[in-house]
Amino acid sequence: MKIEFKELNKKSEKELQTILSETRNHLRDLRFKVAQKQLKNIGEIKMAKKTIARILFLLNQRSAAPKPAAGEIKP
Asked: Per CATH, is 5-64 categorized as 1.10.150?
């Protein structure tokens, strides 16, 4: 479940939140499969963690972006 940064950057915050929750659930399922020795490709865990990190980075970046006040003019 690898999603590129370019694709994520095009999504809205609501879509990112949805993908984040789905990816976290997927990661949880992968961890259960590892514990039961059913998962063959351990690299999936790494990809899921990186996707979660990318989404969180984008969400934090967007929330920290300074928004101009109503009367301000952009230079």
From this structure: no
